[in-house]
Design goal:
Shape: globular
Low-confidence stretches: none
Number of strands: 9
Oligomer: single chain
Order of helices and strands: EHEEEEHEEEE
Largest sheet: 9 strands, mixed
Mean pLDDT: 90
Radius of gyration: 15 Å
Strand content: 35-45%
Distance between the termini: 19 Å
């Protein structure tokens, strides 16, 4: 169901020291850092990330955090996004579409739920 989990931080160095230590106890590797300075942990097929909030505001409950849901297709992501908007969610970030980066081509759609939690529909393109 989930594609990834991301949490926010105001101190990326302190977070790296903390999470590197935590994941080492599980046999995980130290963080990789992407071109935006986000920490990336891969372990047993799971992806956990730590980021400074994109909006420039201080990190707080889920500010900078994203809960990602795996999608079977871009059409499913679009339907998910539309249903969320219809049910009281709000669009955030760029409109649904393809993004390219260190993980290759991804089809992404972002929403905030009625409480402000940030959600992402993610489909990995071939």
């Amino acid at each position: 169901m989930f594609s990834h989990v991301m949490v926010g931080t105001d101190d990326i160095d302190a977070s790296r020291a903390f999470y590197d230590s935590l994941f080492a106890t599980l046999g995980g590797k130290a963080a990789m850092v992407d071109d935006k300075g986000r920490l990336i942990y891969l372990h047993k097929g799971a992806l956990f990330m730590v980021s400074r909030p994109i909006d420039g505001q201080p990190a707080c409950h889920a500010n900078g955090g994203t809960i990602g849901f795996a999608m079977d297709s871009p059409a499913q992501a679009d339907a998910w996004h539309a249903a969320g908007l219809a049910a009281g969610g709000t669009a955030c970030e760029d409109p649904p579409g393809v993004r390219e980066g260190g993980f290759g081509k991804l089809y992404l759609a972002y929403l905030r739920d009625p409480s402000g939690n940030k959600l992402c529909a993610l489909h990995r393109l071939s």
